[in-house]
Design brief:
Blueprint (H helix, E strand, L loop, with lengths): L7 E4 L5 H12 L3 E6 L3 H13 L3 E6 L5 H15 L4 E4 L15 H29 L2 E6 L13 H21 L4 E8 L12 H9 L9 H11 L11 E4 L8
Parallel strand pairs: 1-2, 1-4, 2-3, 4-5, 5-6, 6-7
Helix pairs in contact: 1-2, 1-7, 3-4, 4-5
Amino acid sequence: MEDQVRRVAVVTGAARGIGRGIAERLAARGDRVVINYLTSKEAAEEAVAAITAAGGEAIAAGADVRNEEGAQALVAATVEAYGRVDALVCNANVGLAQGSVAEIPWETFSAKVNDELAAAFHPTRAVWQLMKDQGYGRIVYLAAEASKGPVGADVVAHAAAKSALISYAKFTAREGAPNGVVANVVSPGLTRTDALGEAPPDWFSAFEKRIPAGRAAEPEDVAAMVAFFTSKEAGYIAGTVVSVNGGSDMTR
């Protein structure tokens, strides 16, 4: 383990999908992991059991990180269990809020943007002083390739929210770097998770054919990039957005 220190990572929305893949990857390298969930308590406990069975260490912590109280409670539970917070991965999923520019109601659009940013803003604020005081911190935000531009007429709210998240991450990186707190963004493309379970098989296979790598990403592909950004070696990388898309878009 790096410097013989068992680092502590908090992963929001980690009961399943990409979040669980990240939690398992970090635990496998020796991190002590806090698996945050909102409603999926059983799935979070299953993730903890899987990590423990594999020789890792993890706990589950329920909290709504879209508000200050929930985020503070999550960090307090982490400090109580492990005494520190070294990495924060903002992965909590708040839904796509589908609808075209012409049809999506303002209430739906603004709620998506608000929830997406709140789920990053409040956890970041909750760990900020802890990380500054210890002179070390890694923050990773999960964006999406939709932030680059139109990928479908019905995901304008999702794209706008993720674009705003990237801007927020860059300001966080600028303010944190002088204190050893670096922030970066991982931007997944099409990823095979439960969230896409209702997508028509024909649509999914057609999308995969357009990916140079020949397949959609697995959660483990995204987790590999997050693992690097939360490592000691990533200390000189700040405000970077890395696409994990199999080559489907190379414009950034």
